[in-house]
Amino acid sequence: MKRILQFLGVVLLALPDAPAQQPGRAIPADTLFKQAGDLMDRENFPEAIAVLSDLTGRISWMEHSANARKTYNNLGYSYYLSQNYPESAQNYERAVFLAQELRDTTKWITSQISLAMAYRQLGLYGRCLEANQEALQLARQTGDWESEANILNAMGITYQNLADWDKAIDFHREGLNRSYQHGDTLMASYLMSNIAISQAGKGKIDSSLIYNLQSLRIKQTLMLDSTAYVKNYQNIGDSYLDLDSLQLASDYLAKAEELYSALEDKKGLVGCYSSLARLYLARSLPSEAEKYLLQAEALLQSVTVKNLQIEYLTQKVDLLERKGDFPAALTAFKELTSLREEVFQSEQLEVQRVESAYALREKELVAQRLAQDAALVRAQSRKHVQLLVFLGVSLLAAILITLFFSRLNRRLAESNQHIQMQKLELKHTTYNLLMRIQSLLRMTAKSIPDPASKEKLQQIESAVLSAASLQQFTYGVEKEDEVSLGEYLEELINRLKEAFDTSGFAHVNYEVRIKEDAFFPVNTLLNCGMIVAEIVTNAIKYAFTNVPEPRISVSLAYEGPFLLLQIGDNGVGMDRNVMAKGIGIDLIGKLARSIKADLAVNSEGGTWYTLKIRRNRFVSSV
Predict the structure, then answer these.
(1) Residue 62, SS3?
(2) Nearest Cα to 308, choosing from 349, 260, 255, 353?
(3) DSSP H/E element including 552
(4) pLDDT tens digits, residue range 180-223?
(5) Could you tell me the fold of the domain covering 448-621?
(6) pTM
(7) Residue 559 and residue 213: Cα distance in Å, rounded?
(8) Which residue(s) pair with 567 in the sheet?
């Protein structure tokens, strides 16, 4: 063996080394990756993108699929939070492809969900749903219920973007059921908020209100930050406003205003002020409504969210009409109409631009992949020579080691065979010795006049006979921890019958009924055999006075969780005084306790001993 190891050492030293990195030339790739992670943690996404883009040019780093996957995934994340959704989607696509190649289902699901989010931001709802559907199938196959709930939520939101409220509700309800099944109340609260939005979209204000109230209660019970539930307050206030429950609407919108102000959330405040203006218009208090609209107008100077501007202008038109200022109302209405048209046109143009840019980018991506594949092939070809040499050396080493171990196994097999032969010879010798001891005990018992001493010797003889029977029974048994109790009892009863037939008890009949067998280690079988032999001996000696057809029965069966071993006779039975004083009862009780069996004795219609052994005490059953 030492020569083999020396040979391998010489060959491995002769293998060519990979070219070494020149010190001071470049920062190691893994260090760059960690730097990019730190930049992402600090939300410095432009610099993170620059570092990660540099990494994509490192062939030695990118030729490993695991490195390439996490690099593209982090690029997708950084571009997403930089609101550059086309680049985000393209990098997530690469990450998904590499996760598939690596067969890493967890990373595949994560990147697939992120890709779907980027598609949704681009307005590519069809692709978004396809990506989410694939991720959902993977999550269900792997039993990842948490990802499954998140994906169902995302698919519901996509259908909300498409104003398909029924499908949105279906997906959100399915996600809600998954969350409840696994006790995820946090996810359940967000799904309830989304169901409330869809119900409002369908015009079912009552249902929307119920879901928002439930979501708010759960979030407050979980003691979440107010950012998690401030929108619930506003939505609940809007629902009460739609239902003309103005006081309740006022309470919830006032609370929403308080929370938005504490959070310094300008966008939230604009929407809340528009809702409060609508509330005071419903109360026929235009002057109060105007105050809130003026506050919203001031905030809109720094908040350029067109949907909020549309809501503001809608309430402004209503206010001006109620004040009777129709020229100003007409101007505001024209501005509102123009803004709505602008939003619609910009959305259409954005979709067309994205689709065109995406088609062009896909072609560029194909070209880049071809170039990268070519570079990877060149890099991998350099490794093939080393790999082939290493495989050759490994094969040679494997052959030598196999020859060494096959020779060693042959020697061990020969040694084991010799040990087995010695073991069988020892069993045979032990059996012969036990039979000689039995004969001596019988001769000694016959010559001793004292009944008590004779009884003791007969008990010992029965135990020796049990051990001898077990030795002979296990002569050809390979597994001594799994020996059949039923077969051993049949063998033992035959031995006892032969022994007692020669002692003048040939008229006794024996019956062995093995309804169900069990398997025990040899030590347990020996104790069971000694118990049976002792009971049979006692029955032969004391049970059959004036009994015309004496019979001894042994049975083995199951009763619920217990294995029942019953030994009995149809003799005269024993009175309680004799049972208490002994005639082997004490020995039988000790043997029963040694195998952790419960012993019961019944002297009605003969004497019956029942041993109850719990199932987990024995190896197996047939």
Answers:
(1) helix
(2) 260
(3) strand 551-559
(4) 999 999 999 999 999 999 999 999 999 999 999 999 999 999 99
(5) Heat Shock Protein 90 (3.30.565)
(6) 0.51
(7) 57
(8) 554, 609
